[in-house]
Write a structure and sequence with these properties.
heterodimer; A: 223 residues; alpha/beta; Rossmann fold; six-stranded mixed beta sheet; four-stranded antiparallel beta sheet; 7 helices; 10 strands; globular; B: alpha+beta; 2 domains; 11 helices; 4 strands; binds adenosine-5'-triphosphate; binds magnesium ion
Protein backbone atom coordinates (compact mmCIF):
# COMPACT_ATOMS: atom_id res chain seq x y z
CA UNK A 1 0.00 0.00 0.00
CA UNK A 2 2.61 2.55 1.14
CA UNK A 3 6.25 1.54 1.28
CA UNK A 4 9.39 3.65 1.78
CA UNK A 5 12.92 2.29 1.65
CA UNK A 6 15.79 4.60 2.52
CA UNK A 7 13.83 7.64 1.32
CA UNK A 8 15.48 11.06 1.51
CA UNK A 9 14.06 14.43 0.46
CA UNK A 10 15.78 17.72 -0.37
CA UNK A 11 13.82 20.80 -1.40
CA UNK A 12 15.04 23.11 -4.10
CA UNK A 13 16.99 22.63 -7.27
CA UNK A 14 20.06 21.03 -5.80
CA UNK A 15 18.37 17.77 -4.93
CA UNK A 16 21.69 15.95 -4.67
CA UNK A 17 23.68 18.24 -2.39
CA UNK A 18 21.10 20.39 -0.56
CA UNK A 19 20.25 19.77 3.10
CA UNK A 20 17.95 16.82 3.53
CA UNK A 21 14.61 17.57 5.17
CA UNK A 22 13.87 13.85 5.40
CA UNK A 23 16.63 11.29 5.81
CA UNK A 24 16.73 7.57 5.37
CA UNK A 25 13.05 6.87 6.02
CA UNK A 26 12.05 3.24 5.84
CA UNK A 27 8.50 2.26 6.68
CA UNK A 28 5.46 0.40 5.40
CA UNK A 29 1.76 1.00 5.94
CA UNK A 30 -0.58 -1.85 5.00
CA UNK A 31 -3.83 -1.34 3.11
CA UNK A 32 -6.59 -0.04 5.40
CA UNK A 33 -3.99 0.84 8.02
CA UNK A 34 -4.20 3.86 10.33
CA UNK A 35 -1.12 5.83 11.43
CA UNK A 36 -0.59 8.88 13.56
CA UNK A 37 2.28 10.99 12.30
CA UNK A 38 3.90 12.75 15.27
CA UNK A 39 6.88 14.94 15.92
CA UNK A 40 7.90 18.47 16.84
CA UNK A 41 7.35 21.41 14.54
CA UNK A 42 9.76 21.35 11.64
CA UNK A 43 10.39 17.61 11.99
CA UNK A 44 9.23 16.98 8.43
CA UNK A 45 5.67 15.72 8.89
CA UNK A 46 4.17 17.86 6.13
CA UNK A 47 7.10 16.98 3.91
CA UNK A 48 6.50 13.26 4.41
CA UNK A 49 2.80 13.69 3.58
CA UNK A 50 3.76 15.65 0.47
CA UNK A 51 5.89 12.69 -0.60
CA UNK A 52 3.05 10.24 0.01
CA UNK A 53 0.80 12.46 -2.13
CA UNK A 54 3.35 12.49 -4.96
CA UNK A 55 3.42 16.28 -4.72
CA UNK A 56 7.20 15.97 -4.52
CA UNK A 57 9.42 13.13 -5.62
CA UNK A 58 11.96 11.52 -3.31
CA UNK A 59 15.55 12.69 -3.78
CA UNK A 60 16.79 9.23 -2.93
CA UNK A 61 15.46 5.84 -1.95
CA UNK A 62 12.40 4.01 -3.14
CA UNK A 63 8.82 5.20 -2.55
CA UNK A 64 5.81 3.14 -3.50
CA UNK A 65 2.27 4.46 -3.05
CA UNK A 66 -0.83 2.45 -4.02
CA UNK A 67 1.31 0.26 -6.25
CA UNK A 68 3.00 3.17 -8.06
CA UNK A 69 6.73 3.76 -7.85
CA UNK A 70 6.62 7.52 -7.26
CA UNK A 71 10.32 8.08 -7.92
CA UNK A 72 10.35 6.19 -11.20
CA UNK A 73 6.85 6.85 -12.58
CA UNK A 74 6.41 9.12 -15.60
CA UNK A 75 4.81 12.53 -15.09
CA UNK A 76 1.79 11.28 -16.99
CA UNK A 77 1.19 8.52 -14.47
CA UNK A 78 1.12 10.74 -11.38
CA UNK A 79 -2.19 12.63 -11.83
CA UNK A 80 -4.10 9.35 -11.83
CA UNK A 81 -2.33 8.38 -8.59
CA UNK A 82 -3.08 11.75 -6.96
CA UNK A 83 -6.77 11.36 -7.76
CA UNK A 84 -6.82 8.24 -5.62
CA UNK A 85 -5.42 10.15 -2.64
CA UNK A 86 -7.29 12.67 -0.48
CA UNK A 87 -5.32 15.39 1.30
CA UNK A 88 -6.23 17.86 4.03
CA UNK A 89 -3.48 20.47 3.90
CA UNK A 90 -2.23 22.22 7.00
CA UNK A 91 -3.00 25.55 5.30
CA UNK A 92 -6.20 24.20 3.62
CA UNK A 93 -5.20 25.30 0.09
CA UNK A 94 -8.75 26.24 -0.90
CA UNK A 95 -9.39 28.21 -4.09
CA UNK A 96 -10.36 31.70 -2.95
CA UNK A 97 -12.49 32.57 -5.98
CA UNK A 98 -14.68 29.46 -5.67
CA UNK A 99 -17.55 28.86 -3.27
CA UNK A 100 -17.35 26.11 -0.65
CA UNK A 101 -19.54 23.99 -2.91
CA UNK A 102 -17.28 24.43 -5.94
CA UNK A 103 -14.15 23.81 -3.87
CA UNK A 104 -15.52 20.51 -2.67
CA UNK A 105 -16.81 19.60 -6.14
CA UNK A 106 -13.42 20.27 -7.74
CA UNK A 107 -11.83 16.80 -7.37
CA UNK A 108 -14.92 15.18 -8.89
CA UNK A 109 -14.96 17.63 -11.79
CA UNK A 110 -11.27 17.05 -12.43
CA UNK A 111 -12.05 13.33 -12.46
CA UNK A 112 -14.82 14.02 -14.98
CA UNK A 113 -17.77 12.78 -12.91
CA UNK A 114 -21.30 13.67 -14.08
CA UNK A 115 -22.76 16.83 -12.51
CA UNK A 116 -25.82 15.03 -11.18
CA UNK A 117 -23.73 12.71 -9.04
CA UNK A 118 -21.50 15.61 -7.99
CA UNK A 119 -24.47 17.59 -6.71
CA UNK A 120 -25.70 14.73 -4.57
CA UNK A 121 -22.27 13.85 -3.17
CA UNK A 122 -21.14 17.40 -2.41
CA UNK A 123 -24.43 18.20 -0.69
CA UNK A 124 -24.12 15.12 1.48
CA UNK A 125 -20.50 15.70 2.50
CA UNK A 126 -21.03 19.39 3.25
CA UNK A 127 -24.03 18.48 5.42
CA UNK A 128 -21.86 15.93 7.17
CA UNK A 129 -19.22 18.54 8.10
CA UNK A 130 -22.00 20.92 9.19
CA UNK A 131 -21.73 23.43 6.34
CA UNK A 132 -25.06 22.76 4.58
CA UNK A 133 -26.00 26.43 4.98
CA UNK A 134 -22.62 27.77 3.79
CA UNK A 135 -22.43 26.05 0.40
CA UNK A 136 -22.29 29.24 -1.64
CA UNK A 137 -19.97 31.12 0.71
CA UNK A 138 -16.40 31.84 -0.41
CA UNK A 139 -13.46 30.81 1.81
CA UNK A 140 -12.62 34.41 2.72
CA UNK A 141 -15.99 34.66 4.49
CA UNK A 142 -15.59 31.39 6.39
CA UNK A 143 -14.01 30.99 9.84
CA UNK A 144 -10.76 29.05 10.14
CA UNK A 145 -12.61 25.98 11.40
CA UNK A 146 -15.16 26.23 8.61
CA UNK A 147 -12.38 26.47 6.02
CA UNK A 148 -10.76 23.42 7.56
CA UNK A 149 -14.02 21.51 7.29
CA UNK A 150 -14.31 22.49 3.61
CA UNK A 151 -10.77 21.14 3.13
CA UNK A 152 -11.77 17.91 4.89
CA UNK A 153 -14.88 17.59 2.72
CA UNK A 154 -12.78 18.10 -0.41
CA UNK A 155 -10.33 15.42 0.73
CA UNK A 156 -12.95 12.74 1.28
CA UNK A 157 -15.37 13.55 -1.55
CA UNK A 158 -13.61 11.29 -4.07
CA UNK A 159 -13.63 8.26 -1.71
CA UNK A 160 -9.83 8.05 -1.78
CA UNK A 161 -7.91 4.86 -1.11
CA UNK A 162 -5.35 6.85 0.85
CA UNK A 163 -6.28 9.80 3.07
CA UNK A 164 -3.55 12.15 4.30
CA UNK A 165 -4.53 14.74 6.90
CA UNK A 166 -2.07 17.40 8.04
CA UNK A 167 -3.10 18.85 11.40
CA UNK A 168 -6.79 18.45 10.50
CA UNK A 169 -8.03 19.52 13.93
CA UNK A 170 -5.82 22.61 14.21
CA UNK A 171 -8.79 24.95 13.99
CA UNK A 172 -11.54 22.69 15.30
CA UNK A 173 -13.10 22.59 18.76
CA UNK A 174 -13.15 19.33 20.70
CA UNK A 175 -16.64 18.35 19.59
CA UNK A 176 -15.81 18.87 15.91
CA UNK A 177 -12.48 17.11 16.35
CA UNK A 178 -14.31 14.11 17.71
CA UNK A 179 -16.73 14.18 14.79
CA UNK A 180 -13.79 14.26 12.39
CA UNK A 181 -12.16 11.32 14.14
CA UNK A 182 -15.41 9.40 13.88
CA UNK A 183 -15.45 10.03 10.15
CA UNK A 184 -11.80 9.05 9.74
CA UNK A 185 -12.23 5.80 11.68
CA UNK A 186 -15.36 5.03 9.67
CA UNK A 187 -13.53 5.60 6.35
CA UNK A 188 -10.63 3.53 7.70
CA UNK A 189 -13.00 0.73 8.61
CA UNK A 190 -14.36 0.81 5.05
CA UNK A 191 -10.85 0.23 3.68
CA UNK A 192 -9.19 3.64 3.35
CA UNK A 193 -5.59 3.89 4.51
CA UNK A 194 -5.33 6.94 6.79
CA UNK A 195 -2.30 8.97 7.94
CA UNK A 196 -2.94 11.88 10.32
CA UNK A 197 -0.17 14.32 11.27
CA UNK A 198 -0.97 16.15 14.49
CA UNK A 199 0.30 17.96 17.59
CA UNK A 200 -2.99 17.22 19.37
CA UNK A 201 -1.78 14.80 22.07
CA UNK A 202 -5.19 14.57 23.74
CA UNK A 203 -6.72 13.39 20.49
CA UNK A 204 -3.99 10.77 20.03
CA UNK A 205 -4.54 9.56 23.58
CA UNK A 206 -8.29 9.20 23.02
CA UNK A 207 -7.73 7.26 19.79
CA UNK A 208 -4.85 4.90 20.28
CA UNK A 209 -3.27 3.70 17.04
CA UNK A 210 0.20 2.98 15.66
CA UNK A 211 2.31 6.13 15.33
CA UNK A 212 5.22 7.27 13.16
CA UNK A 213 7.48 9.57 15.16
CA UNK A 214 9.63 12.00 13.18
CA UNK A 215 12.42 14.07 14.64
CA UNK A 216 14.82 16.21 12.65
CA UNK A 217 13.84 14.48 9.45
CA UNK A 218 14.51 10.98 10.79
CA UNK A 219 12.03 8.30 11.75
CA UNK A 220 12.45 7.64 15.48
CA UNK A 221 9.93 4.90 15.93
CA UNK A 222 7.46 3.06 13.79
CA UNK A 223 5.02 0.90 15.62
CA UNK B 1 -14.74 2.27 -23.39
CA UNK B 2 -17.83 3.05 -21.37
CA UNK B 3 -15.61 5.02 -19.00
CA UNK B 4 -14.27 7.04 -21.86
CA UNK B 5 -17.65 8.10 -23.19
CA UNK B 6 -18.84 8.78 -19.67
CA UNK B 7 -15.79 11.00 -19.29
CA UNK B 8 -16.64 12.99 -22.39
CA UNK B 9 -20.26 13.22 -21.39
CA UNK B 10 -19.19 14.68 -18.08
CA UNK B 11 -17.17 17.38 -19.81
CA UNK B 12 -20.33 18.51 -21.51
CA UNK B 13 -22.21 18.63 -18.24
CA UNK B 14 -19.60 20.70 -16.46
CA UNK B 15 -21.13 24.05 -15.47
CA UNK B 16 -20.52 26.67 -18.16
CA UNK B 17 -19.15 29.36 -15.87
CA UNK B 18 -16.95 27.04 -13.79
CA UNK B 19 -13.49 28.61 -13.92
CA UNK B 20 -11.45 26.88 -11.24
CA UNK B 21 -8.16 28.32 -12.47
CA UNK B 22 -9.53 31.85 -12.83
CA UNK B 23 -8.29 32.09 -16.42
CA UNK B 24 -11.01 34.59 -17.27
CA UNK B 25 -9.34 37.14 -15.04
CA UNK B 26 -5.79 35.98 -15.75
CA UNK B 27 -6.29 36.41 -19.50
CA UNK B 28 -8.38 39.53 -19.88
CA UNK B 29 -10.63 40.00 -22.88
CA UNK B 30 -9.02 43.35 -23.74
CA UNK B 31 -5.29 43.26 -24.34
CA UNK B 32 -4.84 39.91 -26.08
CA UNK B 33 -7.70 40.37 -28.59
CA UNK B 34 -6.52 43.91 -29.33
CA UNK B 35 -2.96 42.76 -30.05
CA UNK B 36 -4.13 39.81 -32.12
CA UNK B 37 -6.48 42.13 -34.03
CA UNK B 38 -3.51 44.35 -34.91
CA UNK B 39 -1.54 41.29 -36.07
CA UNK B 40 -4.45 40.01 -38.12
CA UNK B 41 -4.87 43.45 -39.69
CA UNK B 42 -1.21 43.51 -40.71
CA UNK B 43 -1.42 39.95 -41.99
CA UNK B 44 -4.42 40.89 -44.14
CA UNK B 45 -2.48 43.78 -45.67
CA UNK B 46 0.55 41.57 -46.30
CA UNK B 47 -1.61 38.88 -47.88
CA UNK B 48 -3.38 41.37 -50.12
CA UNK B 49 -0.07 42.88 -51.21
CA UNK B 50 1.39 39.45 -51.82
CA UNK B 51 -1.57 38.34 -53.91
CA UNK B 52 -1.52 41.51 -55.99
CA UNK B 53 2.21 41.12 -56.61
CA UNK B 54 1.74 37.44 -57.47
CA UNK B 55 -0.91 38.38 -60.02
CA UNK B 56 1.40 40.94 -61.62
CA UNK B 57 4.30 38.51 -61.55
CA UNK B 58 2.26 35.94 -63.45
CA UNK B 59 1.21 38.58 -65.96
CA UNK B 60 4.76 39.75 -66.53
CA UNK B 61 6.22 36.27 -66.67
CA UNK B 62 4.10 35.47 -69.74
CA UNK B 63 5.27 38.79 -71.17
CA UNK B 64 8.90 37.90 -70.61
CA UNK B 65 8.51 34.57 -72.34
CA UNK B 66 7.08 36.29 -75.42
CA UNK B 67 10.05 38.60 -75.53
CA UNK B 68 9.39 40.22 -78.92
CA UNK B 69 6.23 41.69 -80.40
CA UNK B 70 5.75 42.89 -83.93
CA UNK B 71 3.09 45.46 -84.71
CA UNK B 72 1.76 45.61 -88.26
CA UNK B 73 -0.33 48.72 -88.96
CA UNK B 74 -3.20 48.38 -91.45
CA UNK B 75 -2.80 44.58 -91.42
CA UNK B 76 -5.68 43.74 -93.75
CA UNK B 77 -4.62 46.05 -96.56
CA UNK B 78 -3.04 44.38 -99.57
CA UNK B 79 0.69 44.24 -99.46
CA UNK B 80 2.70 46.79 -101.37
CA UNK B 81 3.49 45.54 -104.86
CA UNK B 82 0.92 42.77 -104.83
CA UNK B 83 -1.18 44.61 -107.39
CA UNK B 84 -4.09 45.15 -105.01
CA UNK B 85 -5.46 41.67 -105.67
CA UNK B 86 -6.46 41.39 -102.01
CA UNK B 87 -5.11 37.90 -101.39
CA UNK B 88 -1.69 38.90 -100.16
CA UNK B 89 -2.21 41.16 -97.08
CA UNK B 90 0.43 43.13 -95.23
CA UNK B 91 -0.03 40.81 -92.24
CA UNK B 92 0.44 37.77 -94.48
CA UNK B 93 3.66 39.19 -95.85
CA UNK B 94 4.99 39.97 -92.42
CA UNK B 95 4.20 36.46 -91.21
CA UNK B 96 5.89 34.97 -94.24
CA UNK B 97 9.04 36.93 -93.44
CA UNK B 98 8.94 35.86 -89.82
CA UNK B 99 8.48 32.19 -90.69
CA UNK B 100 11.63 32.25 -92.75
CA UNK B 101 13.71 34.24 -90.25
CA UNK B 102 16.33 32.34 -88.27
CA UNK B 103 15.89 32.51 -84.46
CA UNK B 104 12.10 32.84 -84.50
CA UNK B 105 10.70 29.74 -82.79
CA UNK B 106 7.02 30.48 -83.11
CA UNK B 107 4.61 33.24 -84.02
CA UNK B 108 1.17 33.99 -82.73
CA UNK B 109 -1.18 36.63 -84.00
CA UNK B 110 -2.88 38.10 -80.95
CA UNK B 111 -6.65 37.84 -81.54
CA UNK B 112 -8.56 41.07 -81.70
CA UNK B 113 -10.60 40.26 -78.59
CA UNK B 114 -7.44 39.98 -76.52
CA UNK B 115 -6.19 43.29 -77.89
CA UNK B 116 -9.36 45.11 -76.95
CA UNK B 117 -9.09 43.54 -73.48
CA UNK B 118 -5.62 45.04 -73.17
CA UNK B 119 -6.79 48.42 -74.35
CA UNK B 120 -10.05 48.52 -72.41
CA UNK B 121 -8.57 50.08 -69.25
CA UNK B 122 -7.43 53.05 -71.33
CA UNK B 123 -10.10 53.33 -73.95
CA UNK B 124 -13.15 52.07 -72.09
CA UNK B 125 -15.53 49.24 -72.81
CA UNK B 126 -16.76 50.36 -76.22
CA UNK B 127 -13.51 49.95 -78.17
CA UNK B 128 -15.18 47.95 -80.92
CA UNK B 129 -17.58 50.81 -81.58
CA UNK B 130 -14.72 53.29 -82.01
CA UNK B 131 -13.47 51.47 -85.11
CA UNK B 132 -9.92 52.52 -84.33
CA UNK B 133 -7.15 51.52 -86.72
CA UNK B 134 -5.68 48.97 -84.39
CA UNK B 135 -2.52 47.30 -85.67
CA UNK B 136 -2.14 43.54 -85.71
CA UNK B 137 0.15 42.29 -82.98
CA UNK B 138 2.31 39.22 -83.49
CA UNK B 139 3.96 37.63 -80.50
CA UNK B 140 7.28 35.99 -81.27
CA UNK B 141 9.00 33.35 -79.26
CA UNK B 142 12.67 33.58 -79.95
CA UNK B 143 15.35 30.96 -79.71
CA UNK B 144 17.33 31.30 -76.48
CA UNK B 145 20.38 32.39 -78.47
CA UNK B 146 18.32 35.33 -79.72
CA UNK B 147 18.24 36.71 -83.24
CA UNK B 148 19.56 39.61 -85.19
CA UNK B 149 16.69 42.05 -84.53
CA UNK B 150 18.12 44.73 -86.80
CA UNK B 151 18.10 42.38 -89.76
CA UNK B 152 14.59 41.24 -88.86
CA UNK B 153 13.44 44.85 -88.68
CA UNK B 154 14.91 45.66 -92.12
CA UNK B 155 13.29 42.59 -93.71
CA UNK B 156 9.90 43.43 -92.17
CA UNK B 157 10.18 47.06 -93.23
CA UNK B 158 10.54 46.02 -96.83
CA UNK B 159 7.74 43.43 -96.59
CA UNK B 160 5.24 45.61 -94.68
CA UNK B 161 6.43 49.19 -94.37
CA UNK B 162 5.63 50.74 -90.96
CA UNK B 163 5.93 47.43 -89.05
CA UNK B 164 7.43 47.89 -85.58
CA UNK B 165 9.61 45.37 -83.77
CA UNK B 166 9.82 45.65 -80.02
CA UNK B 167 11.81 43.52 -77.63
CA UNK B 168 10.32 43.41 -74.12
CA UNK B 169 12.30 40.54 -72.64
CA UNK B 170 14.69 42.43 -70.35
CA UNK B 171 11.99 44.75 -69.04
CA UNK B 172 9.50 42.04 -68.38
CA UNK B 173 12.15 39.93 -66.71
CA UNK B 174 13.10 42.81 -64.42
CA UNK B 175 9.47 43.51 -63.56
CA UNK B 176 8.81 39.84 -62.91
CA UNK B 177 11.83 39.68 -60.58
CA UNK B 178 10.56 42.78 -58.79
CA UNK B 179 7.07 41.30 -58.44
CA UNK B 180 8.51 38.02 -57.17
CA UNK B 181 10.57 39.91 -54.60
CA UNK B 182 7.41 41.68 -53.48
CA UNK B 183 5.65 38.33 -53.10
CA UNK B 184 8.59 37.04 -51.05
CA UNK B 185 8.53 40.20 -48.88
CA UNK B 186 4.82 39.78 -48.28
CA UNK B 187 5.33 36.12 -47.32
CA UNK B 188 8.13 37.08 -44.90
CA UNK B 189 5.96 39.85 -43.45
CA UNK B 190 3.08 37.40 -42.94
CA UNK B 191 5.46 34.94 -41.30
CA UNK B 192 6.91 37.59 -38.98
CA UNK B 193 3.40 38.69 -38.05
CA UNK B 194 2.52 35.08 -37.20
CA UNK B 195 5.68 34.75 -35.11
CA UNK B 196 4.99 38.00 -33.25
CA UNK B 197 1.41 36.85 -32.67
CA UNK B 198 2.58 33.62 -31.12
CA UNK B 199 5.13 35.52 -29.01
CA UNK B 200 2.33 37.78 -27.80
CA UNK B 201 0.37 34.66 -26.84
CA UNK B 202 3.42 33.23 -25.05
CA UNK B 203 3.86 36.41 -23.01
CA UNK B 204 0.17 36.70 -22.18
CA UNK B 205 -0.05 33.03 -21.23
CA UNK B 206 3.09 33.24 -19.06
CA UNK B 207 1.65 36.27 -17.27
CA UNK B 208 -1.60 34.35 -16.79
CA UNK B 209 0.27 31.33 -15.42
CA UNK B 210 2.17 33.48 -12.94
CA UNK B 211 -1.01 35.26 -11.85
CA UNK B 212 -2.78 31.92 -11.26
CA UNK B 213 0.20 29.98 -10.01
CA UNK B 214 -1.35 29.08 -6.66
CA UNK B 215 -4.61 27.89 -8.20
CA UNK B 216 -2.70 25.83 -10.76
CA UNK B 217 -0.66 24.16 -8.05
CA UNK B 218 -3.77 23.34 -6.07
CA UNK B 219 -5.56 21.89 -9.08
CA UNK B 220 -2.39 20.02 -10.06
CA UNK B 221 -2.20 18.51 -6.56
CA UNK B 222 -5.82 17.43 -6.83
CA UNK B 223 -4.82 15.22 -9.74
CA UNK B 224 -5.40 17.41 -12.80
CA UNK B 225 -3.27 16.31 -15.74
CA UNK B 226 -1.14 18.69 -17.80
CA UNK B 227 -3.69 18.30 -20.58
CA UNK B 228 -6.51 19.41 -18.26
CA UNK B 229 -4.71 22.57 -17.14
CA UNK B 230 -3.34 23.38 -20.60
CA UNK B 231 -6.86 22.88 -21.96
CA UNK B 232 -8.33 25.47 -19.58
CA UNK B 233 -5.79 28.07 -20.71
CA UNK B 234 -5.67 27.22 -24.41
CA UNK B 235 -9.44 27.24 -24.81
CA UNK B 236 -9.55 30.73 -23.32
CA UNK B 237 -6.70 31.90 -25.58
CA UNK B 238 -8.38 30.28 -28.58
CA UNK B 239 -11.54 32.28 -28.00
CA UNK B 240 -9.68 35.56 -27.47
CA UNK B 241 -7.39 35.02 -30.49
CA UNK B 242 -10.30 34.11 -32.76
CA UNK B 243 -12.07 37.28 -31.62
CA UNK B 244 -9.00 39.39 -32.30
CA UNK B 245 -8.37 37.70 -35.65
CA UNK B 246 -11.93 38.35 -36.73
CA UNK B 247 -11.77 41.99 -35.66
CA UNK B 248 -8.51 42.51 -37.53
CA UNK B 249 -9.83 40.93 -40.72
CA UNK B 250 -13.02 42.97 -40.58
CA UNK B 251 -11.06 46.18 -39.96
CA UNK B 252 -8.77 45.39 -42.91
CA UNK B 253 -11.70 45.00 -45.31
CA UNK B 254 -12.39 48.70 -46.00
CA UNK B 255 -8.68 49.38 -46.46
CA UNK B 256 -8.30 46.48 -48.88
CA UNK B 257 -11.42 47.45 -50.80
CA UNK B 258 -10.13 50.99 -51.14
CA UNK B 259 -6.73 49.83 -52.36
CA UNK B 260 -8.25 47.29 -54.75
CA UNK B 261 -10.55 49.90 -56.22
CA UNK B 262 -7.57 52.17 -56.81
CA UNK B 263 -5.53 49.32 -58.29
CA UNK B 264 -8.28 47.84 -60.47
CA UNK B 265 -7.39 49.72 -63.69
CA UNK B 266 -3.80 48.44 -63.54
CA UNK B 267 -4.65 44.85 -62.82
CA UNK B 268 -4.43 42.29 -65.58
CA UNK B 269 -7.84 41.66 -67.15
CA UNK B 270 -9.59 38.67 -65.73
CA UNK B 271 -6.93 38.18 -63.08
CA UNK B 272 -7.76 40.52 -60.26
CA UNK B 273 -11.21 41.92 -59.96
CA UNK B 274 -12.58 40.22 -63.02
CA UNK B 275 -14.93 42.20 -65.16
CA UNK B 276 -15.90 45.37 -63.31
CA UNK B 277 -19.32 45.34 -64.98
CA UNK B 278 -20.12 41.92 -63.60
CA UNK B 279 -19.33 42.80 -59.98
CA UNK B 280 -21.85 44.21 -57.62
CA UNK B 281 -20.64 47.19 -55.68
CA UNK B 282 -16.96 47.42 -54.86
CA UNK B 283 -16.74 43.91 -53.41
CA UNK B 284 -15.94 42.33 -56.75
CA UNK B 285 -12.63 44.15 -57.06
CA UNK B 286 -10.99 41.94 -54.41
CA UNK B 287 -9.38 38.86 -55.89
CA UNK B 288 -11.18 35.62 -55.18
CA UNK B 289 -8.15 34.18 -53.38
CA UNK B 290 -8.32 37.03 -50.87
CA UNK B 291 -11.95 36.18 -50.20
CA UNK B 292 -10.76 32.72 -49.25
CA UNK B 293 -7.91 34.01 -47.08
CA UNK B 294 -9.70 36.70 -45.06
CA UNK B 295 -12.02 34.23 -43.26
CA UNK B 296 -8.90 32.09 -42.75
CA UNK B 297 -7.31 34.79 -40.57
CA UNK B 298 -9.47 34.26 -37.44
CA UNK B 299 -9.11 30.51 -37.90
CA UNK B 300 -5.35 30.84 -38.21
CA UNK B 301 -5.17 33.22 -35.24
CA UNK B 302 -7.22 30.77 -33.17
CA UNK B 303 -4.99 27.88 -34.21
CA UNK B 304 -1.79 29.79 -33.43
CA UNK B 305 -3.25 30.90 -30.09
CA UNK B 306 -4.41 27.42 -29.13
CA UNK B 307 -1.20 25.63 -30.08
CA UNK B 308 1.06 28.28 -28.56
CA UNK B 309 -0.90 28.34 -25.30
CA UNK B 310 -0.84 24.53 -25.13
CA UNK B 311 2.92 24.50 -25.64
CA UNK B 312 3.56 27.33 -23.18
CA UNK B 313 1.44 25.85 -20.40
CA UNK B 314 2.74 22.30 -20.84
CA UNK B 315 6.31 23.61 -20.84
CA UNK B 316 5.64 25.64 -17.70
CA UNK B 317 3.97 22.71 -15.92
CA UNK B 318 7.15 20.66 -16.23
CA UNK B 319 8.42 22.46 -13.12
CA UNK B 320 5.71 20.70 -11.12
CA UNK B 321 6.29 16.99 -10.36
N1 LIG C 1 8.82 24.18 0.23
C1 LIG C 1 9.89 24.11 1.05
N2 LIG C 1 11.10 24.52 0.60
C2 LIG C 1 12.18 24.43 1.38
N3 LIG C 1 12.17 23.97 2.62
C3 LIG C 1 11.01 23.55 3.13
C4 LIG C 1 9.81 23.60 2.36
N4 LIG C 1 8.80 23.12 3.12
C5 LIG C 1 9.35 22.79 4.30
N5 LIG C 1 10.67 23.05 4.31
C6 LIG C 1 11.60 22.79 5.41
O1 LIG C 1 11.48 21.41 5.75
C7 LIG C 1 11.53 21.23 7.15
C8 LIG C 1 10.32 20.39 7.56
O2 LIG C 1 9.15 21.12 7.27
P1 LIG C 1 7.73 20.47 7.44
O3 LIG C 1 6.73 21.45 6.97
O4 LIG C 1 7.74 19.14 6.80
O5 LIG C 1 7.64 20.31 9.01
P2 LIG C 1 6.41 19.85 9.90
O6 LIG C 1 6.85 18.68 10.66
O7 LIG C 1 5.21 19.70 9.07
O8 LIG C 1 6.25 21.10 10.86
P3 LIG C 1 4.89 21.66 11.52
O9 LIG C 1 4.54 20.73 12.63
O10 LIG C 1 5.30 22.98 12.06
O11 LIG C 1 3.88 21.72 10.47
C9 LIG C 1 11.52 22.60 7.76
O12 LIG C 1 12.83 22.86 8.21
C10 LIG C 1 11.19 23.55 6.64
O13 LIG C 1 11.96 24.72 6.73
MG1 LIG D 1 3.47 20.69 8.86
Amino acid sequence: MVRLEGVGLCYGRDAETGPEVLRDITLAIPAAGFRWLLGPSGAGKSSLLRLLHAAVRPSRGRLEVLGTDVGGASRRALPRLRRRIGVVHQDFRLLRHLSAYDNVALPLRIAGRPEGQIRADVGEVLRWVGLADKMEVHPARLSGGEQQRVAIARAVIGRPQLLLADEPTGNLDDRQSERLMQMLTELNRLGTTVVVATHNDALVRRHPAPALLLEGGRLQAAA
Amino acid sequence: MAGRSEFRHARLLRPAGFDELGVRRALSDRILPALVAAMSFLAALALAGGLAAAGLAGHWRTGAATVVTVQVPRPTQPAEGSGGAGEDTRLGRALAVLHTSPGVVSTRVVPEGELSDLLRPWLGAGIEKLSLPIPAVIELRMAPAGADLDRLTRRLESAAPGALVESHGPWFRRLAVLAHSLVACAAVAALVVALVASMVVVIATRAGLLARREAIEIVHDLGASDGYIAGRFSRRVLGLAALGGLAGAVLAMPVLLGLATLAAPFAAPGQAGGDPELSWGALGVLPASLWLMLPGLPVLAAAIGFLTAQGTVRQWLRRLP
